[in-house]
């Protein structure tokens, strides 16, 4: 690696050692001390996924939602989500072919050997004509209301914490109750009796009943993720987008908003033009005329702001779900990062949560599991 000094005697070699956890105490202190005062150093470190940007750069992504967490279990093939969906189809007397359900889930990558990502919970139910909502930060009151409306309810929980089988959770360097690794169906919830009854694919019993407090402890690990299923058209849809108000974007990321907003309009206009829409002073659906069929610069300020809001909310959501946006830079450090990523063990996964593992990792980025080489 080059020995070029970046700022105040800090070299790229020192930065690489810092990111790998091999820097000396003095080197780490020098980097952290220089970071708030060096835009160049901030820009270089901003392309490295391993850096603690929340602390070092003053970036606040807020609470991360585990949408990519994998719901798996001790059922054969980590199929707890699939079994829950089959249970719901059976309750609704919806006929299905078991082999087809299995094959379609794998073909669409809803179901993998590691389980089902939370954002894919309920995909089979969609395919069979049910309306689906997926939401984080729900409450017991939300569960009760959904059940009262006749909805089916699936939730993601920490399986070991739910059942009290803490041996599943006692891993080195991992606290009990951190991973949303299991899906169950909520059958009923009795607030007066302080109990909740679940269908659990892992259980030998048809249904299991738990104290609500015990359930809540396990449910909290998925940030209270709930999927509801109901007959299409059975009730009015109430949108509840993910709250991203706690995400603060860096200035260079915020600047992307306008570019994304303008390109989103270009995409919209291209699709409409292919459908036969043309410019018209007043909207006319029959003749396919719209006053919005103009360049972005000619849109009303209200339309522009709508596009900007959508763009910024999308960028914030990316961060909220635990991802980073990395700016391309023609530097030696960037080239080495690319080489490290391209040479990663992309087929290796964490044995606990299923996250992709990269070469040289000692702990899983998602769940903290110590990786045994």
Molecular structure report:
The protein starts with a strand and ends in a 31-residue tail after the last helix. The longest helix is centred in the C-terminal third of the chain and has 20 residues, at 301-320. A 6-stranded antiparallel β-sheet has the order 5-10-6-7-8-9. It has a two-stranded antiparallel ribbon with strand order 1-2. It has 14 helices and 12 strands. It has helices spanning 12-19, 25-34, 39-45, 53-56, 80-91, 98-107, 123-127, 140-148, 159-163, 212-219, 251-254, 256-274, 301-320, 332-342, and strands at residues 5-7, 10-11, 70-71, 116-117, 130-135, 152-157, 182-190, 195-199, 208-211, 226-231, 278-279, 289-290. The chain has 373 residues and is an alpha+beta fold. It is globular. The chain has 3 domains: 5-49 and 326-342, no CATH class; 70-231, Cysteine proteinases (Cathepsin B, Chain A); 251-320, Orthogonal Bundle (Globin-like), CATH 1.10.490.160. A hairpin with a 4-residue loop joins strand 7 (182-190) and strand 8.
What is the topological layout?
Elements: E1 5-7, E2 10-11, H1 12-19, H2 25-34, H3 39-45, H4 53-56, E3 70-71, H5 80-91, H6 98-107, E4 116-117, H7 123-127, E5 130-135, H8 140-148, E6 152-157, H9 159-163, E7 182-190, E8 195-199, E9 208-211, H10 212-219, E10 226-231, H11 251-254, H12 256-274, E11 278-279, E12 289-290, H13 301-320, H14 332-342
Parallel strand pairs: 11-12
Antiparallel strand pairs: 1-2, 3-4, 5-10, 6-7, 6-10, 7-8, 8-9
């Amino acid at each position: 690696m080059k020995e070029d000094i970046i700022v105040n005697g800090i070299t790229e070699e020192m930065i690489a050692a810092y990111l790998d956890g091999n820097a000396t105490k003095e080197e780490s202190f020098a980097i952290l001390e220089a970071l708030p005062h060096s835009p160049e150093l901030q820009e270089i470190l901003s392309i490295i996924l391993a850096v603690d940007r929340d602390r070092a750069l003053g970036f606040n992504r807020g609470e991360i939602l585990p949408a990519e967490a994998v719901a798996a279990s001790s059922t054969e093939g980590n199929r707890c989500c699939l079994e829950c969906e089959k249970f719901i189809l059976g309750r609704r007397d919806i006929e299905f072919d078991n082999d087809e359900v299995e094959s379609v889930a794998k073909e669409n990558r809803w179901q993998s050997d590691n389980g089902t990502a939370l954002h894919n919970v309920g995909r089979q139910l969609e395919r069979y004509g049910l309306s689906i909502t997926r939401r984080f930060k729900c409450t017991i009151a939300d569960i009760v209301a959904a059940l009262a409306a006749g909805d089916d309810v699936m939730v993601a929980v920490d399986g070991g914490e739910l059942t009290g089988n803490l041996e599943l959770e006692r891993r080195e360097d991992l606290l009990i109750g951190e991973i949303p690794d299991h899906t169950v169906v909520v059958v009923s919830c009795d607030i007066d009796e302080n109990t909740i009854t679940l269908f659990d694919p892992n259980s030998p019993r048809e249904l299991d009943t738990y104290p609500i407090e015990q359930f809540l402890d396990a449910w909290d690990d998925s940030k209270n993720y709930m999927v509801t299923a109901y007959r299409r058209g059975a009730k009015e849809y109430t949108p509840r987008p993910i709250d991203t108000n706690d995400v603060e974007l860096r200035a260079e990321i915020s600047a992307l908003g306008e570019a994304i907003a303008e390109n989103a309009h270009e995409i919209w206009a291209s699709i409409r033009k292919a459908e036969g829409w043309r410019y018209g002073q007043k909207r006319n659906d029959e003749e396919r005329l719209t006053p919005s069929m103009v360049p972005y610069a000619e849109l009303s300020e209200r339309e522009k702001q709508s596009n900007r809001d959508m763009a910024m909310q999308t960028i914030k959501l990316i961060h909220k779900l635990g991802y980073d946006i990395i700016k391309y830079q023609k530097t030696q450090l960037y080239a080495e990062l690319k080489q490290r990523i391209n040479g990663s063990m992309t087929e290796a996964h964490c044995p606990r949560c299923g996250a992709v593992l990269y070469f040289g990792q000692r702990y899983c980025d998602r769940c903290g599991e110590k990786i045994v080489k």
